[in-house]
Amino acid sequence: MKRWSVLVWSTVALGVLAPSQAAAMRLEPWRGHVAVGYGHLFSDSFSPGGSISVAGGVDYPVSPNLRVGPVIGMSILGTHDVVRGSITAGLDYSLFDCALQLHWSPANGPLSRVSFGPGFAIARTSLQVGGGGAGFLDLAVDEVRPELAVDVSAMPRRQKIVAVGLEAGVRIVPVERVSWVLGTVRLAIHY
Predict the structure, then answer these.
(1) Confidence (pLDDT) at 68
(2) Using an 8 Å Cβ cutoff, are 180 and 43 in contact?
(3) What are phi and psi for residue 13, nearest 5 degrees?
(4) Could you say which of 24, 42, 136, 150 has the lowest number of CB atoms within 10 Å?
(5) pLDDT of residue 87
(6) In this predicted model, what pLDDT tens digit does every residue of 33-81 receive, in sequence order?
(7) Are strands 66-84 and 180-190 parallel, antiparallel or unpaired?
(8) Handedness of CA 148, 154, 160, 163 (dihedral sign)
(9) Closest C-alpha among 150, 183, 154, 182 to residue 167
């Protein structure tokens, strides 16, 4: 229940901080970013070793230190083989997510951007088995779930046109069988 209250309060905060004059929104203040790196899933003993993770988003200023905008990401997390009896099945993990994040730029410290907000995720564990697949159906996942997205970035504070930095993130997704926690480390290019 605590996760849901965090999602609700984050959504309320984003709504309150949204620009009051949406008709006066100009294109110049919009910024964007793309990031590519590594993602690792923490869920259960079947979690794969991790693999590529990419994300991108745009944001708009609501105050000098706050920006708001959507972020879309895709993580192809790898595979894991499971043996039951004489049959082996492959589990192929991936996560697609979309979040509306509030981006805060602290004035001091090693972090130059802290982002958080609610979203939704499509968690998927594809089952690959030649025969006897019914014995592995309990491991397959194909769910759309709410998520809590948190990212922190270290990059130059004075961005002229482009800034390159390191981004670390966490996605918490309450999948039915076992909750998924995705950790990411990515090279981010802010423009």
Answers:
(1) 97
(2) yes
(3) -60, -40
(4) 24
(5) 80
(6) 999 999 999 988 888 888 999 999 999 999 999 999 999 999 999 988 8
(7) unpaired
(8) negative
(9) 154
The rounded distance, in Å, linking the Cα atoms of 102 and 121 is 18
Residue the block writes with tokens 């090693």:
110
pLDDT of residue 84: 83
Give which of 52, 43, 145 is closest to 98, Cα–Cα.
Answer: 145
- State the CB neighbour count (10 A cutoff) for residue 62: 19
With b for 16 or more beta-carbon neighbours within 10 A and e for fewer, the 71-110 pattern comes to bebebbbbebebeeeeeebebebbbebbbbbbbebeeeee
On average, the pLDDT of the chain sits at 85
pTM of the model: 0.79
Q: How far apart are CA 97 and CA 102, in angstroms?
A: 16
